[in-house]
Amino acid sequence: MPELPEVETIVRALRSGGRGGLPILNRTVESTEVLWSKTLASPTLDELHIQVRGQIVKDVLRRGKYIIIQLDRGYLLIHLRMSGDLRVTSAIKDTPLPHDRFVLRFADGIRLIFNDARKFGRVWFTRDPEQILGKLGVDPFDPSLTAPFLFSNLQSKKKHIKSLLLDQSFLAGLGNIYTDESLHRAGIHPLRLSNSLTKPEAGRLLQAIRDTLEEGINRNGASIDWVYRGGDFQNCFRVYQLTGKPCPVCGTIIERIIAGQRGTHFCPRCQPKGV
DNA sequence: CCTGAAACCTGTCTGC
DNA sequence: TGCAGACAGGTTTCAG
Question: What range does the domain containing A112 cover?
Answer without folding.
Answer: 4-133
